[in-house]
Amino acid sequence: MSAEPAPATPTSREASSRPAVALSRRPLVSVLLRLLEFAMGALFIYLGGAKLLGSPAAVRLFHDIGWGQWFRYVTGVVELTGGLLLIVPLLAGASALLLMAVMMVATVIELFVLHRPPVAATACLCAHGVIAWNRRAQTRRLFAHRLHPSPPFR
């Protein structure tokens, strides 16, 4: 009678610790992502609203840019809309992509037109990048649905 070696299985401690770590981190990531979306949404609702309402700082900024006040209104509408859409989880990724484009333009303007370091624009760009990356699956499904709509009823 030869004794067969027992199959190699992880110890109960190893088996139970792996899923617990994965399960405990995911809700934290989801909560932090939602907090970031709400914070950036609130910030861009405020910034877009200030531009549309004609705050003296916004009027001065767009005067210094030199493209006219129409650019302030366009930027205000895009920022306000993007901020509102960041609060909707299904649309947060697409909104973050839109606001990333706005922040890229803001970074270029800060560097080459206003000749100052684009600290705030770069920070916002990074935050929107985190949101867009974490919402990429939802954004992909959203765009796939829009590109291939269902056939009409007969």
Structure overview:
The protein is an all-alpha fold. It has one domain. The protein is built from six helices and no strands. Helix 1 crosses helix 5 and helix 4 crosses helix 6. The longest helix has 42 residues. It is globular and about 75 Å long. The N and C termini lie far apart (73 Å).
Features:
single chain; 154 residues; mainly alpha; 0% strand
Strand content: under 5%
What percent of the residues sit in helical stretches (DSSP H or I)?
over 70%
Average pLDDT reading: 86
Q: N- to C-terminal separation?
A: 73 Å
Q: Could you give a short account of the major beta sheet?
A: none
Taken in chain order, the helices and strands follow as HHHHHH
Tally of separate domains: 1
Structural class: mainly alpha
Unreliable sequence segments: 12-23
How many separate helices?
A: 6
Shape: globular
Count of β-strands: 0
Rounded Rg: 23 Å
Write the layout of secondary structure elements.
Layout: H1 12-53, H2 56-65, H3 70-86, H4 89-112, H5 119-134, H6 136-147
Helix pairs in contact: 1-3, 1-5, 3-4, 4-5, 4-6
Short description:
With 154 residues, the protein is an all-alpha fold. The protein has 6 helices and no strands.
